[in-house]
Amino acid sequence: MLFEAHSIGCDQTLASQGMIHGGIKYALSGALTGASEAIASMPERWRQCLGLSDPSGSSDLLAANVDLTGSHLLSEKYYMFAKSSTLGRLTTFFASKSLRGRIDKLSKNEWPSSFRGFDGVVYSLNDFVVDTTDLLNTLIAPFSEYVFQLQLTEHNVEKTPEGYVIELDDISVCAKQLICCAGNGSQNIMDIAGIDDIAMQQRPLKQVIVRPRHNLQMYAHCLTGITSNEPRITITSHPSDAGLVWYLGGRLATTGIERTDQQQLVFAKQELEICLPWLDWRAAQFEILSVNRAEAYRPSSIKPDEAFVQRSGDFIQCFPTKLSLAPNLGDKTLQQLDPPTYTTPLRSNHTKAQVGKPQW
């Protein structure tokens, strides 16, 4: 059973860019890292779940893949581009044997139409972009009768020697284990459950939503003139009721917390004019979307390399760290769980939770 306080995915999942990536953007120092290798196998795992790849020969854990067939992709490819004169030694690194099969330099006739007018280099990555709303709908469809809208509080959750009792409108649920995947709501639930040996952290972002004048889609990292081990801008495109939007992350978003909202909007437009000068940004509309990433605690608030799962008695705390690492989270959680034993069909008229909508 799933208990959702508001709407499914409303906090982090629907605020993510939907990118399923294999870690190249974590290796922009010119060397593979723990973070880049921990996530390297995730695109293939996702492709198996989505029915886009043959799972034959997979490990036992892969036999537990979640069926996401039919879920819509926004883009089957993801790209990386830069003014060629600004890449330096990354040019050699991208061509190295260690990255074979993970990144390919494209000839100009292979470029997506959105790069028409660009003068530089474009790479294709072994990454893709999911439609997070459709993904969530596909994920819960077989289990919709067991997905309830309920904010857990000290009034509806009781710790017992056997586990937890959770009160719905018409039934009491006795659970042997509570698995917490509440993101930013995790600390509150850990407090209710009396868990004091698991620590979490938040790392804020100031993402930018752009409503461009043009109707071109783009799914790419901009590396032009990068001065850190992070893409200058990470771009995805998404449909909305008011037309196409561009959603901007990367270093633009991580450093955005140092700027006021107005400064961030001005800075975002300047960055687009510098990084994508062949497109017209004069009539584009810009909005801020502030996001708090919830993760397991790490010294100096550095990003964890992998998904996090930790048991404390009959309580299991989960932080996927990145959408791409969800299969890694599933593997680790399954290792902590005994097979379920409850077989009686559940009947409750308690309000069901619905999938949320993206900010745009």
What does it look like?
This protein is an alpha+beta fold and 360 residues long. The protein has one domain. It is 18% helix and 25% strand. The protein is built from eight helices and 19 strands. The strands form five sheets. An eight-stranded mixed beta sheet has the order 5-6-4-14-15-16-13-17. A hairpin with a 4-residue loop joins strand 10 (163-167) and strand 11 (172-175). The longest helix is centred in the last third of the chain and has 15 residues, at 261-275.
How big is the Rg? 22 Å
Look at the structure and give the mean pLDDT.
Answer: 93
Strand order of the largest sheet: 5-6-4-14-15-16-13-17
The helical percent reads 10-25%
Main sheet attributes: strand count, strand direction, barrel closure: 8 strands, mixed
Number of domains: 1
Distance, first to last CA: 29 Å
H/E element order: EEHHEEHEEEHEEEEEHEEEEHHEEEH
Supply the helix-strand structural class. alpha+beta
Record field, number of beta strands: 19
What would you call the shape? globular
Low-pLDDT residue spans: 59-63
| Total of helices | 8
Characteristics of this structure?
360 residues; alpha+beta; eight-stranded mixed sheet; three-stranded antiparallel sheet; 8 helices; 25% strand
Tell me briefly what this model is.
With 360 residues, the protein is of the alpha+beta class. It has helices at residues 34-38, 42-49, 90-94, 132-140, 186-193, 251-254, 261-275, 326-336, and strands at residues 2-4, 19-20, 73-75, 78-82, 103-105, 121-125, 128-130, 147-149, 157-160, 163-167, 172-175, 178-180, 200-211, 220-222, 233-238, 245-249, 285-296, 308-312, 315-319. The longest helix is centred in the last third of the chain and has 15 residues, at 261-275.
